[in-house]
């Protein structure tokens, strides 16, 4: 018996209440499908999703199922930039996942279709699917196109810094702002939204080719219909999230993350999803896999092309097909077949029939490189450890020049991002500095992004190959340049980053995966001398006074794990 019918037998008021909503009597005994969506007039990645919800409702109804649409709107990281709204970003993943758990737990359903596009909504859906262990299919909301001259939103941070420095006019800056988002869908670069759409497919939770479809296309609606059918197929076969989200599936996601140069925020989300199933995915897992997988995707922010060109080059299945020798091909997927079977059957000309008729004049090999001629042979992310980050920290090595792979820099310390950004813009940061931003971790301020400071550095020709930013906060998926984040333990938990002082010497060695305080303003010191200095400073360090003591940020900052462990509260 279906779960919905089993619970219905013991809940005598349920039929009455559903009939009161307009259900027909024969709807009550049908397969019950929860449609979860982040639809809302919150940002371009979610504003169009109700069209897909309506398509799904219509399709499921014709398939003799009873769909119910529920909503948990996500916020926009882009609109949260530049003010304290960014503190609410990571915690929103937790809240949306919890809301879905409540939706599903309080009312009986037999499976779910999850429709979302962006940075925290889509990871929240994945967390909820794993936690609930239900038959479920993810339908990503696609990606927007680029603006004039291939303009994409990730460039606006650069143009903002350039305008502040007087390098471009206000009129030019306004033009860029007004044309960077020409339509619906996730932002058109390999930021967190595009990364998580891609990894949802790599995990086996979407239909083949469903990630990064053009946000305004009819093919998105066709995939929604097929995804609706797939949910019912999973219910019939008894396939749940636990059958799909195995350790091998998570390894596949990390392999694809390495190949696409994915956002470092995936290193927060993938461990959080796996944790729901009792699977431990660590930062070391990312580092180990990235070392052996070629980085092949030439897409912004580290590469040249907007993300929409992935679709026109064959989509995520084309990337995965190139990486078959690295992938676990026997894992189950939402098609009811294995990843290997899916890749053998996928034909982008058929799956993408409408849009593949649109011709773009570009070389597909300039978007998705051959694996024997990759952009870089050793993935895109490294995990560094040392006396400043005993649990670890994260750097996207594919986005920084080789000259920064082994350097010793002088610390400039800031206790919030706003002060650091001001110092960069006002030119008080000099070549050879390490900009330390602390108390921005999960327990400090909710782990906001340091996007504007990284862009101010990356867009400054004098600094972008001579200065590193080191923080217990995190970075936007749009971040490029020498940025080291997720430093753990964080400053609010009395991690060593909390006792770094102006003038301390920080040695970064990416090849050997180390980051250490190696001296003070008086010069380099021995390891024993440094250990004693760190110990003495920590003894005199006052307890951190929580910035947030109530509300959702009070809850989150009091309970969150470190950034290197996913920044979760469960």
Radius of gyration: 24 Å
* SS-based class: alpha/beta
Strand content: 5-15%
Which residues form runs of ≥5 with pLDDT under 50?
Answer: none
Tell me the overall shape: globular
Strand order of the largest sheet: 5-6-10-9-8-7-11-12-13
Distance between the termini: 32 Å
Q: Roughly what percent helix?
A: 25-40%
For the biggest sheet, the summary is: 9 strands, mixed
Supply the number of helical segments: 22
Structure overview:
The chain is of the alpha/beta class. The chain is 37% helix and 13% strand. The chain has helices at residues 3-9, 14-20, 49-62, 77-80, 89-106, 121-132, 156-164, 170-179, 192-202, 218-237, 241-244, 247-260, 266-275, 283-292, 308-312, 315-322, 339-345, 348-351, 417-425, 451-458, 527-539, 551-559; strands at 31-37, 65-71, 111-116, 136-140, 382-386, 389-395, 406-414, 433-437, 468-471, 483-488, 505-509, 514-520, 523-524. α12 crosses α14 (283-292). The longest helix is centred in the middle third of the chain and has 20 residues, at 218-237.
Keywords:
570 residues, alpha/beta, nine-stranded mixed β-sheet, 22 helices, 37% helix
Structure in a nutshell:
The chain has 570 residues and is α/β, with parallel strands linked by helices.
């Amino acid at each position: 018996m279906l779960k919905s019918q089993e619970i219905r037998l013991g809940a005598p008021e349920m039929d009455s209440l559903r009939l009161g909503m307009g259900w027909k009597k024969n709807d009550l005994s049908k397969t019950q499908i929860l449609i979860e969506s982040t639809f809302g007039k919150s940002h371009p990645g979610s504003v169009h999703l109700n069209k897909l919800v309506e398509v799904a409702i219509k399709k499921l109804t014709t398939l003799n199922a009873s769909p119910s649409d529920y909503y948990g709107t996500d916020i926009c990281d882009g609109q949260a930039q530049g003010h304290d709204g960014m503190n609410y970003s990571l915690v929103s993943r937790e809240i949306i996942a919890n809301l879905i758990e409540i939706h599903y737990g309080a009312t009986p359903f037999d499976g779910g279709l999850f429709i979302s596009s962006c940075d925290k909504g889509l990871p929240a859906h994945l967390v909820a699917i794993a936690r609930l262990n239900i038959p479920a299919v993810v339908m990503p909301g696609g990606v927007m196109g680029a603006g004039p001259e291939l303009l994409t939103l990730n460039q606006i941070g650069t143009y903002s810094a350039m305008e502040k420095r007087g390098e471009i006019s206000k009129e030019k800056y306004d033009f860029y702002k007004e044309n960077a988002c020409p339509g619906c869908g996730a932002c058109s670069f390999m930021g967190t939204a595009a990364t998580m759409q891609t990894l949802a497919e790599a995990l086996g939770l979407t239909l083949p080719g469903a990630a990064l479809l053009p946000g305004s296309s009819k093919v998105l609606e066709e995939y929604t219909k097929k995804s609706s059918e797939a949910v019912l197929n999973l219910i019939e076969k008894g396939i749940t999230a636990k059958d799909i989200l195995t350790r091998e599936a998570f390894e596949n996601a990390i392999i694809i993350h390495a190949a696409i140069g994915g956002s470092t925020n995936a290193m927060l989300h993938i461990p959080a999803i796996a944790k729901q199933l009792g699977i431990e995915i660590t930062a070391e897992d990312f580092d180990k896999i990235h070392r052996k997988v070629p980085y092949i995707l030439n897409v912004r922010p580290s590469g040249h092309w907007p993300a929409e060109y992935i679709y026109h080059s064959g989509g995520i299945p084309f990337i995965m097909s190139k990486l078959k020798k690295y992938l676990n091909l026997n894992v189950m997927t939402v098609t009811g077949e294995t990843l290997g079977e899916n890749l053998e059957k996928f034909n982008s000309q058929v799956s993408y029939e409408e849009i593949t008729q649109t011709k773009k004049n570009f070389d597909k090999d300039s978007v998705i490189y051959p694996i024997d001629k990759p952009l870089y042979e050793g993935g895109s992310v490294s995990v560094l450890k040392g006396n400043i980050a005993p649990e670890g920290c994260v750097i996207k090595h594919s986005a920084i020049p080789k000259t920064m792979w082994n350097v010793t820099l002088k610390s400039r310390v800031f206790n919030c991002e706003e002060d650091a950004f001001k110092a960069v813009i006002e030119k008080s940061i000099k070549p050879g500095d390490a900009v330390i931003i602390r108390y921005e971790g999960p327990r400090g301020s909710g782990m906001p992004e340091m996007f504007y400071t990284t862009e101010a550095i990356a867009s400054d020709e004098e600094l972008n190959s001579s200065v590193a930013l080191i923080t217990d906060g995190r970075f936007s998926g749009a971040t490029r340049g020498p940025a080291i984040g997720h430093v753990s333990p964080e400053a609010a938990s009395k991690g060593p980053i909390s006792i770094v002082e102006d003038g301390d010497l920080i040695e970064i060695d990416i090849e050997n995966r180390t980051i250490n305080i190696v001296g003070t303003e008086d010069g380099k010191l021995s390891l024993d001398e440094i250990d004693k200095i760190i110990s003495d400073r920590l003894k005199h360090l006052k307890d951190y006074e929580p910035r947030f003591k109530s509300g959702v940020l009070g809850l989150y900052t009091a309970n969150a794990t470190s950034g290197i462990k996913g920044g979760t509260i469960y």
